[in-house]
Amino acid sequence: MKTLVYSTHGYDMPFLKEAAKDQHQLTFTESPLDSKTVEMAKEYESIALFSNDNASAPILEKLYGFGVKYIALRSVGYDHVDLHTAKMLGIKIANVPEYSPHAIAEHAVAMLMMLNRKLYDSQLLIQMQDFRLDSLVGFDLNNKKIGIIGTGKIGMVFAKIMNGFGCKLLGYDLVENPEAKDLNMTYTSLVEMLEKCDIISLNCPLNEHTKQLLGEAEFKKMKKGAILINTARGGVICTESLLKYLENGHLGGACLDVYEKEKGLYFFDHRFDIIADSNFARLHSLKNVLLTGHQAFLTKEALSGIAETTISNLTQWSKNGASVNDL
Predict the structure, then answer these.
(1) Could you confirm whether 216 is annotated as catalytic?
(2) Where are the domains of the chain?
(3) How far apart are CA 266 and CA 320, in angstroms?
(4) What is the tens place of the pLDDT at every residue in 120-136?
């Protein structure tokens, strides 16, 4: 199948080539799918997208006009795709329903440890040969209350790791995970979780129910000094409200692998650009905020899993016009 792969970079292209093994004719471009690059999809039967691509209704209508029949998503989330329009047009969409949940959960823990134990600050001091410890005091994770919003595969891996630290686990989800009992996790309301927990981790998808799930009212309810971890989607929180409660000292810190307005920002080289985003600048300036550029998924195991499922979806479409991962 002749496929145009949008938003490819040096880290994922080798995995896609290896998974394809000459089964499919893949053409790669670093450009994301948008109104300017949609023309590139002419004469392709299928395209492959990443989470920052734009598959809104107008884009899908153009793709349909070009003869695109299949769109393989290289992500679990599909909030960047207008599924209703795709279904009306008869364009098949398939995602990667799961890949290494350990990659994202472990990254969340790494960010938490780095922020809490001031590891970045300590390295800067070491480089200056300043060996004072006064500004590097953290806290034990043992016995701390951890709130986990979204207790699917990623949330449960995160829960298992935190359980190993001796933390007390509280969960919030529309559907309770039976594995939670083995970890002594207690399901609770969102309000109770916010009021009681020392650390809140977001592991839920972005949809109409979770968009800006945490805003002004929710951050105000959070326990003073609490830390927020977001390795889910930037749109799950209201950045402006988060900034307010970080800057006024109510929240202890934030570990953010995703950002509400990351499209066009993350995955690209902006070293010589002026980033005209005041909220991002404010986040970047805070010493109690740790930012990573949507890299939580970036392990060999996860990249291999994403590539293999993407190619499998293309193969199933080429053989029978349907994939087991069709949305």
Answers:
(1) no
(2) 2-99+300-320, 101-291
(3) 36
(4) 999 999 999 999 999 99
Comparing 2-99+300-320 with 101-291, is the CATH topology the same?
yes
Long-range contacts of 178-184 (CB under 8 A, 24+ apart): 180/151, 180/156, 183/156, 183/159
pLDDT band at 68 (very low <50, low <70, confident <90, very high): very high
Q: Quick one: residue 173, left, alpha or beta (phi over 0 = left, psi -120 to 50 = alpha)?
A: beta
Of 18, 262, 270, 271, catalytic: 262
Tokens representing residue 178 in the block: 């039976």
d(CA 79, CA 313): 19
- Given 176, 294, 301, 308, which residue is catalytic? 294
Catalytic, 233? Answer yes
Residues 146, 197: Cα–Cα separation, whole Å: 6
Contact 79, 209 (CB under 8 A): no
pTM, rounded to two decimals: 0.93
Which one of 24, 80, 107, 233 is the catalytic residue? 233
196 close to 187: Cβ distance less than 8 angstroms: no
CATH superfamily for domain 101-291: NAD(P)-binding Rossmann-like Domain (3.40.50.720)
Across the chain, what does the average pLDDT equal? 96
Q: Which residue has the tokens 């000459």?
A: 22
pLDDT > 90: percent of the chain: 94
| CATH of region 2-99+300-320 | 3.40.50.720
DSSP 152: S
Is 294 catalytic? The answer is yes
User: CA-to-CA distance for 153 and 142, rounded, in angstroms?
Assistant: 23
